[in-house]
């Protein structure tokens, strides 16, 4: 029987996930949606030709016996409460990143999930399923470049909207890097410092862009992450690992090479939904299978918490200009 999913927030990624559930993935059906704007929700369902119930109140949808599991794709600040509402009645949730706006919010989710006695939450850290990152991790764990010493990373978006702030660089964007790098090198963070280079004239008053995050891990690996969200040329994710015996780079996504007008060129993606399309498909199928088999294996609430502990320290470092400590807590057996 197909898993009956209810989706909260049907904006850009909500629509992407609805489309993949109904057209690409197996054993799943979207039976209900909710959004702050009910009219928009009806229009989206009509356009996607999907027959699902529209709820004005997301909590009514969460509580509906017609809905087996929940997909949270509403705005960042709404995630924590929707996840808590779902797991407190024992329903599984796939929650887009960030799990909550800070570590304290994530901890509430962890405590509730542990009280329920089984994993109910998967966080949308889809890079853990990206074939490129998986290949890069294998090179590292196979010992091909020796011990990792330094990581050089960049996350660049073509542009962002006017509501995006200096803090959102961390809570909305860097959070992906904080998760994937910890996963990649199997290490926890120790300190962070934030550097503000000259700001691009493509930015706006509430956003300092680009920013550089200098992280140190428990094992002494040094990481620099450039986040540049108005880079103006495309959506570009870079990761280079300098090891003691060699260097490994995240593979570029494969696009067609062209020779034309005296130029040799390859196309760059302009949007996250295209760059990570395989990862999104695999992560959501993994959630669906996990709920059906009563065994979730994807990025956990603990991963959401670990990334948020680091994000909190990054926010502090943005303001202080100092090197800030990132606390590490031992991961409970429940999440191993
Ligand atoms: P979006 O286009 O703004 O969509 C969010 C939707 O949720 C909007 O329709 C919004 O309505 C609605 N909403 C806001 N508050 C709500 C509430 N309390 N109850 C129900 N619906 C509510 O944003 P998006 O780009 O799709 O992003 C959605 C989430 O996914 C964000 O948390 C984002 O960080 C995450 N995301 C993750 C990735 C990834 O790579 N994993 C990529 C993109 C986005 P209004 O427009 O009326 O506010």
Overall 3D shape:
globular
The gyration radius over C-alpha positions equals 20 Å
**What do we call the CATH topology of the largest domain?**
Dihydrodipicolinate Reductase, domain 2
CATH superfamily of the largest domain: Dihydrodipicolinate Reductase, domain 2
Strand/helix succession: EHEHEHEHEHEHEHEEEEEEEHHHE
Strand order of the largest sheet: 12-11-7-10-9-8-15
Percent of residues in beta strands? 15-25%
Number of domains: 2
CATH class of the largest domain: Alpha Beta
**Between the first and last Cα atoms, what is the distance in angstroms?**
29 Å
Give the number of helices: 10
| Topology, number of strands | 15
CATH architecture label name of the largest domain: 2-Layer Sandwich
Class by helix and strand content? alpha/beta
Can you describe this structure?
With 336 residues, the protein is of the alpha/beta class. The chain folds into two domains: 3-127 and 278-300, NAD(P)-binding Rossmann-like Domain (Rossmann fold), CATH 3.40.50.720; 131-270 and 307-335, Dihydrodipicolinate Reductase, domain 2, CATH 3.30.360.10. Helix content is 36%, strand content 23%. The protein has helices at residues 12-23, 38-48, 58-63, 79-88, 103-116, 131-141, 168-185, 272-275, 277-292, 301-320, and strands at 3-8, 28-34, 53-55, 69-72, 92-95, 121-123, 148-156, 189-195, 211-217, 222-228, 236-243, 247-249, 257-260, 263-266, 324-325. The strands form three sheets. A seven-stranded mixed sheet has the order 12-11-7-10-9-8-15, covered by helices on one side. α4 links the parallel β4 and β5 (92-95). α5 (103-116) packs antiparallel against α10 (301-320). The longest helix is centred in the last third of the chain and has 20 residues, at 301-320. The chain is globular and about 55 Å long. The mean pLDDT is 97. Bound molecules: NADP nicotinamide-adenine-dinucleotide phosphate. NADP nicotinamide-adenine-dinucleotide phosphate binds next to α1.
């Amino acid at each position: 029987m197909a898993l009956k999913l209810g989706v909260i927030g049907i904006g850009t990624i909500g629509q992407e996930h609805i489309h993949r559930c109904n057209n690409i993935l197996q054993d799943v059906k979207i039976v209900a949606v909710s959004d702050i704007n009910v009219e928009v929700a009806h229009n989206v369902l009509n356009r996607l030709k999907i027959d699902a119930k529209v709820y004005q109140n997301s909590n009514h949808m969460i509580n509906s016996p017609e809905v087996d599991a929940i997909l949270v794709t509403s705005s960042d600040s709404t995630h924590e409460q929707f996840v808590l509402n779902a797991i407190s009645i024992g329903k599984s949730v796939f929650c887009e990143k960030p799990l909550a706006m800070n570590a304290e919010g994530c901890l509430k989710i962890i405590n509730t999930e542990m009280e329920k006695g089984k994993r109910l939450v998967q966080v949308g850290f889809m890079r853990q399923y990206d074939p490129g990152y998986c290949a890069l991790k294998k090179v590292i764990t196979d010992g091909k470049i020796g011990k990792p010493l330094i990581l050089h990373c960049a996350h660049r978006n073509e542009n962002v909207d006017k509501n995006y702030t200096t803090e959102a660089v961390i809570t909305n964007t860097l959070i992906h890097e904080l998760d994937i790098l910890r996963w990649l090198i199997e290490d926890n963070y120790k300190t962070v410092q934030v550097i503000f280079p000259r700001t691009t004239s493509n930015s706006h008053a509430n956003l300092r862009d680009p920013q550089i995050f200098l992280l140190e891990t428990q094992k002494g690996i040094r990481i620099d992450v450039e986040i540049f969200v108005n880079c103006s040329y495309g959506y570009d994710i870079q990761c280079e690992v300098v090891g003691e015996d060699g260097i490994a780079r995240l593979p570029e996504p494969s696009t067609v090479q062209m020779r034309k007008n005296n130029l040799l060129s390859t196309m760059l993606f302009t949007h996250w939904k295209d760059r990570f399309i395989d990862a999104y498909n695999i992560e959501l199928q993994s959630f669906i299978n996990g709920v059906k088999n009563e065994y979730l294996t994807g990025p956990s609430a603990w991963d959401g918490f670990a990334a948020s502990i680091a994000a909190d320290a990054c926010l502090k470092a943005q303001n202080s200009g100092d090197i800030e400590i990132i606390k590490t807590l031992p991961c409970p057996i429940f999440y191993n």
